[in-house]
């Protein structure tokens, strides 16, 4: 079968113009409609041939030709072309929210409404303030409910920051409040900000009876000497000005008066050598140690206290004189607690406080005079006596002093377990033993008390006829 198809298109054009109006904006659109006709012609030829079958009876030939009719189909095609002559917007007017800068001034809006007297915190936690006129605070202070704040160049409130202005330094804490009448500690340094918020610099400050000093950087003096107008002062570990005390600084001993002014003290030796002579004094002796020093006394043991109320009124002058005469100074307390450990602790506290008040330097010897007399009883049990004595000595050691125990050889042998004492504090016995009276010029070893742990031997009550007890060191102290 053979099939042939032919297509022919015929186009009929027409044009339509349409106007569209929307939101007061006119747009003209041109629309072109194209109509086309498709004609399809189909021609079909069919030929059928029947073969000839030669036979003796028939000879038949058949030829058939069929021709179909022509069919025509018409299609219309529509084409739309739009040309826009203008563009339009359907968005509404913008709404102001947040920070808005107008004429180089920053304001804060909420739904188109400008805010005034308004605080705002951003996502970073920074705080901003917009004043009564709505303007952002920048490079200016702000006062509220007695507190002062500062807003920087970018408008952010100062928090945990220093601020310097016209040579003055301020500090604003974690809540933004300026420090006023307040200490501030940073990196181990202490500062103070006064009533006007200005950091103290090169000036003194007195509070609760203590005086402090702040240097040119505002740092409080601590464990440090300060000199001004020819006077020298010392500020302790708490930053307080030292008054009415003695202190050793870099190997030099100073005494501070009631105004804190220091004077150097000649303390002489820092220890006592084996074989060195010394004296012990109380209110019965005078305050001038020069006579003892000129006779060879290199140390003086000064009575400071007795019981819980008595203070030797001459002690301070005796200490000063001994130091001025190049003598090592030791102190002692006369006990009245007998075998009462609780009372021993109370007396120890009293003695230590007075030693400190008199300026006896830490590391000095502070002895316990435990003997019969002035209400002290030694007839308690050896165990109770020893326990009370060690209670006192332990308190002395805890306060930074070196404890000694004084008594007569007989009392120590019969009423105290000296083995326990020297086990806790080796070579800590100061023993009195002198069988004869009268002026004694030097120690006679024949009368030395044969005891362990003896550091100092009191060998006479009238050394060289000076009316003072004579002592000799039998150990390096």
UniProtKB/TrEMBL annotation:
<dbReference type="InterPro" id="IPR002053">
    <property type="entry name" value="Glyco_hydro_25"/>
</dbReference>
<feature type="region of interest" description="Disordered">
    <location>
        <begin position="1"/>
        <end position="72"/>
    </location>
</feature>
<dbReference type="GO" id="GO:0016052">
    <property type="term" value="P:carbohydrate catabolic process"/>
</dbReference>
<dbReference type="Pfam" id="PF01183">
    <property type="entry name" value="Glyco_hydro_25"/>
</dbReference>
<feature type="compositionally biased region" description="Low complexity">
    <location>
        <begin position="17"/>
        <end position="72"/>
    </location>
</feature>
<protein>
    <recommendedName>
        <fullName>Lysozyme</fullName>
        <ecNumber>3.2.1.17</ecNumber>
    </recommendedName>
</protein>
<dbReference type="GO" id="GO:0003796">
    <property type="term" value="F:lysozyme activity"/>
</dbReference>
<comment type="similarity">
    <text>Belongs to the glycosyl hydrolase 25 family.</text>
</comment>
<keyword id="KW-0326">Glycosidase</keyword>
<dbReference type="InterPro" id="IPR008270">
    <property type="entry name" value="Glyco_hydro_25_AS"/>
</dbReference>
<dbReference type="InterPro" id="IPR018077">
    <property type="entry name" value="Glyco_hydro_fam25_subgr"/>
</dbReference>
<feature type="compositionally biased region" description="Polar residues">
    <location>
        <begin position="1"/>
        <end position="16"/>
    </location>
</feature>
<dbReference type="GO" id="GO:0009253">
    <property type="term" value="P:peptidoglycan catabolic process"/>
</dbReference>
<dbReference type="GO" id="GO:0016998">
    <property type="term" value="P:cell wall macromolecule catabolic process"/>
</dbReference>
<dbReference type="InterPro" id="IPR017853">
    <property type="entry name" value="GH"/>
</dbReference>
<keyword id="KW-0378">Hydrolase</keyword>
